[in-house]
Design goal:
The chain is an alpha+beta fold. It has helices spanning 15-20, 23-37, 101-104; strands spanning 10-13, 46-54, 57-63, 71-78, 86-91, 95-99. The chain has a single domain (11-103), classed as enterococcus faecalis protein (Nuclear Transport Factor 2, Chain: A, Roll). The chain contains three helices and six strands, in the order βααβββββα. It has a six-stranded mixed β-sheet with strand order 1-6-5-2-3-4. This is GTP cyclohydrolase.
């Protein structure tokens, strides 16, 4: 078995994510995984992040199926109603990708 979300592996964002989120929010997901989640709990190969409006700023809300650990991380970036409500981080063992919900279903 491989270690999920190893920061040394290739990381990507889907075309749908790149076209709907600014780069700093995409980067923030990787930072949250590396700095806030790794080592705290065992991570599955699919992680869920909700993007919430917190008084005009983004709160990234993490949850993982089968885990009681949930976490909201307030970010200093402006929120837009054009942002997707949810994104996933997916690790297939060789590369990691941030995807929209409709893109994860295609895998």
């Amino acid at each position: 078995m491989f270690e999920t979300f190893d920061s040394k592996k290739s990381r990507y964002a889907s075309v749908g994510v790149v076209s709907s989120l600014p780069g700093e929010l995409i980067d923030s997901i990787w930072y949250i995984i590396d700095l806030d989640l790794k080592g705290l709990i065992p991570l599955d190969n699919i992680l869920s992040f909700d993007l919430l409006n917190n008084e005009g700023r983004v709160t990234m809300y993490f949850s993982q199926e089968g885990s009681e650990v949930e976490m909201g991380i307030d970010l200093p970036f402006g929120y837009s109603s054009d942002f997707p409500q949810e994104v996933y981080a997916y690790d297939d063992g060789s590369r990691q990708t941030i995807l929209l919900p409709n893109e994860i279903r295609q895998r």
